[in-house]
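Recall the central idea of this unit: under ordinary conditions, the amino acid sequence of a chain determines the structure it adopts. In this exercise we apply that idea directly, starting from the sequence alone.
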Amino acid sequence: MLLPTKNNIKLLKLLRYSCKNWFEVLPYILTNNDKIKAEFRNGKIIQCNRYRLIIAFVPYYYFSHKLGVFSDSDFTIFYEVYLDISKKLKKAIDDGILVQSGVGGSFGYEEALLFALIRYLKPSTVVETGVAQGISSYVILKALELNRRGRLMSVDLPNPNPNGYRYANGTVDPVYTPTTLGSGWIVPDELRDRWTLLIGRSKEILPTLSIEVDFFFHDSEHSYENMLFEYEWAYSRISQNGVIASDDIGWNQAFRDFAKTHPDLRPIIHGLGYEYQFGLWRYDQIEV
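Accordingly, the structure predicted from this sequence is:
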C-alpha cells in the first residue's frame, strides 16, 4: 500500500513526469524487486529492478530535463554506463574478489545528478575525494568526454580490508577495494586520459593543490572533521559558479553546518526535502 507520506508523494511526482507507463510501474515497484520494464516519455524502454529505477533513471530523466540538458543520446549513454558497471561488478563478485556489501554506492541518485550537472556546467576542473571501485569516477569522466572538455582529479586512500573501515565512534563503513583490483578499477581505459588519480589522505593531498575547482565531490572518509575540512577546502578553491557536492550527508551534521556558515551557497535542488540536498552552488535553486 502506498501511504501518502511526503517522500511517496515526491516519488509519484518524479515517476509521473518521467514514465509513460507510470500507472503500471507504480504498483509493481511496491511489491516486487524483479526487473521492471519502464517506458519513459521519450520512448526509451529500460529494464531494471525497482530500486535502480527509483534512485537512478527516474531522477536522471527528471533533473536533466529541469537543467535543460536532456537528450535521447545522453539517456541511452547513461543507461549503457549502468549496464557496463553492473556487468563488471557482477564478475568481480562472482569471481569471489569482491562482496556486494563492500561495493559502496552502486549506481543511483548521486550518479544521476553528477552526470546531469557536469553535462550542464561543463566544468574545466573536477575534484573528487574517495574513489573505491570508481563508479562515480566513471560517470564523471563519461560526462566530461561528452562535453569534450575538462579533467577529473581524484584523491583516494583505498581500504583493502574486506571487513570495512571502523570509525572512532564505532560506525563501520563496509566499502573496501580489493588490492588485486586497485582504486578506480572499473573505469574504462579509454576514459583515463582525462583522469589524475592521487593516492593518499585528502588532508595531506588537497592542501598541496593550487588549483581553481569548478566542481567538487566528497565521498571519502565520512567523519565530521574530515567532511568539514574537505568542504572548507573546496570553498576556498571553488570558482564563481562552482558546485560543492557530497555523498552521504546524513552521516553527521557537517554538510548542514557548512551550509549554515556559507549563506552565499544554495541547495541545488529545492522542494524535494533534505534527502535530495546533494550539493550547493551559487546559481539559483532548481525549484521542483
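The first strand starts at residue 35 and ends at 39.
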